[in-house]
Structures are given as C-alpha cells and as structure tokens.
Amino acid sequence: MTEPAAAVLARFSEQVLGLPLPVGIRLWDGSTAGPKDGPAFVLHNREALRRLLWRPGELGLARAWVAGDLEVDGDLYELLKRISTLLWEREESGSRTAALRGALSVLTTPGSLRTVSRTLGLAGVVLPPAPPAEEMVRRRGPAHSMRRDKAAISHHYDVGNDFYALVLGPSLVYSCAYWQGDPSSGSDNTLEQAQEAKLDLVCHKLALRKGQRLLDVGCGWGSMAMHAAERYGVQVVGVTVSDEQAALARERVAAAGLEHLVEIRVQDYRQIDDSPFDAISSIGMAEHVGGKRYREYADILHQLLKPGGRLLNHQIARRPVRDEGKYRMDPFIDRYVFPDGELAPMGSTVSLLEEAGFEVRDVESLREHYALTLREWVASLEAHWDEAVKLTSPGRARVWRLYMAASAVGFETNTMGVNQVLAVRTGGDGRSGMPLRRDFVGASASTSTSALA
User: Fold this and answer.
1) Phi and psi of 451, rounded to 5°?
2) pLDDT digits over 360-381, tens only?
3) Eight-state DSSP code of residue 175
4) Structure pTM?
5) CA 51/CA 46 separation, integer angstroms
6) How far is CA 58 from CA 84, 90, 118, 395, in A?
7) DSSP per-residue string spanning 132-162
C-alpha cells in the first residue's frame, strides 16, 4: 500500500529539521501529518512543493504563499511563532537555522530534487524551478543610487493610495502608533487616536513652536506635516520620492487649507538645498537608506539643521549578530516588500548619528506599540480582503498580509524593535538648547478639536 504523501513529506522534513514538525501539514490529496491541535500549512497543489524545494526556508514558503499554492489553516500568528525559530532565527555560527539551511542547500540540488520527488511519488513535477511571481522586484543600477532608491520606493509605496487608505485607515500614517494600552481595552484607544498621539509625541520631542521651519523626510501622505502645521503653526517642507504619495499629500494639504504652511515635494533628501531648518522629523524612512549610506544620511541631516536644531529619527532596528559582515535582509522582505531595505542594531544607529556631530539626548523603544499597530493593519486588510484584491492583485494582497503578520511576530518576540532617537545639533559653544529635564515625558495627543483631513 502506498504511504500517504503527507506522511512521506513529514518524515523527510523531520529528518532535515532533527525534531518533530512544529505545525501540521495538509496536502492536495487529502493526506495530513504533524500536530492536530494547532495551525497547519495547506499545500493546494504540487506547485507548492516545487516552490518549497527549490527555495528552502522563508523564501520558498513566501513564493508558494504569494502564488496561492499554500495557505494557512488556523491562527496565522501562532503558525509564524511556531516556525520563527526555524526560519527567522538570527544566523549565528552554530545556530539551528544555519545548520538547517546548510542541509537544505545540499538536499535541494537538482540531483537530490529528483530523488526527493521520486520518494514522494511526484516524479516529473518538482523540476524545473517555478518562475518568479510578478510581485517580485526587478532591480537595476547601483544599490542606493537616487534612481534605484526611487524605483525601490515606488515598488513599495506606489501600490495604490486607495489600498493604503483601506489598510492604514483615515490617518494614512505608515509607522507604529503610540498606544495607551491594548486596542481592545476600549473605544477611546483606537488606531486613529494612537496615530495622532504618535504624531503629537514627535512634535513634543522636537519642541515645535509657531514660526519654526520643519523638514519632514519621507513625508508619506503628509500626515506628520499637516499635524505639525495645524497644531503648532510651523512651516513644513515634506519630501518623498513617491509620486503617488506626493499627489495625495498635496490634495490632503489643500483640502485642509494648509497650503500656506505645508509644501510637499518629490525630492530626495540628498537634493535639499534650502536649509537651514529648526527641526527635522524622519519617521520610518531611514530603513531605506542602507548601511553604506547611513553616515552620509546623518551628515546631510546635521548640515540641514540650525545650531540647536533637533532631529527625531524614528527607525526600525534589528538585534545585533555576532558577525555583522554576514548580515543579510530577510529574502522575502527584500524581494517582495522593501527592496534594498536594511535594518541596523540600535547601537550602530546611535554611533553613526554621533559621528556626524549630533548629540543624542533620548532613545525610546516603541517595540510593543508596533506589534499592536501591525495587528490592527492586518485586521483591517482581512476585513476588506475582496476590496483589497480588487485594488491591487491577489498576490500583492497576500504579500502584505504575510509581511505585516510576520513583522508583528518579529516585534512581539524581540527579533525586531523600533526606536525614536532624539538628537540635537549643538552650537559652537556646545549649547544644546535642551531643558535640564525631558519636557516631553507623558506627552499625549493634543486636546484640540481640529482633526486630520
């Protein structure tokens, strides 16, 4: 009697992993294997197995997921947590992940693939490799050149403003919110309120006052620029290299009657030539800069500020690894979500800001806040799934659901963090203009009744 394909696949996987399957599996032929009391991978067809064997690890899973050949039955977050130590564990010498990937790289050579396919009774269906999905980025030119950076930003942000509005909500803020507690704690703790509280926290840290000039680097759809102008009366220059973002940001600024205070530009931060500024906000932008360019980024922002001017740098961080030279961005994120994006340990970011001449005055971790925010975004995407698919494509919607859910797990398990770094360009005499005590502790959303457009 022929052994069910799921049992054969489970045995093969456990031999490679060296431990029992952490999640269940269900195959197209109805066979099952693995734990019965939790989430399971569902392989709808043989293409899923083909993708997994040719690209072992998270990239193979992601490709099968994006193509719709693989889905999850049960709690997606729980499944990601169960497999996170196998796939997204830091790759340090001697780690289980490094050993797993080494074994899989040998087992998935063309000769071994034929052996595996015959073992599973799938001869002739595993080879050759499946073509990449249309959602995968195609890169041209030197990394982090202005042209390639613009293309990378376009790949991620020019998915469609209506799609982002559906996922992010009316605030159109694409960075972590600042929560009072778990969103389920009450109606006075909504995503919109938490995003407004984050924007206000940034304004408090920058000590914005009427008449000052603020540069918002990576301004997105203009929410920070509008909040600072409307609530604090500052003149704001917002820059983005996304044409779609800039178009909608200008519409929102005009609708709010803030054109006399807010200018939105399609411009790279390296092209700004109308300094100085009293303050700079960079919220969720520095992850796109790249390690080799980061000191240049810090130098430019330092030069754009007046003496005594403040920088608020809000940036995702990763845990450090033993050999930083071997760090590579998660392949799924790099190829499907944030092309050329790079995460750095918090200590490296602070050091480079200091090397550029900044005095770092405060660092605040918002790690748990981002996990809560991402879960809200995923819930919104799932609640409006059919509309999201119409606005983009089935593959693109699946990319966003997976990356946001996996990122939430990353923040919850301390694989990633996010930090606000407040720094100042001191004057020639060393004066910072900062108060003796932090004046933004406990800052919350403004009590003004005016609202973001």
Assistant:
1) -130, 155
2) 999 999 999 999 999 999 999 9
3) S
4) 0.84
5) 9
6) 10, 13, 24, 16
7) PPTTS----SSTT-HHHHHHHHHHHHTT-HH
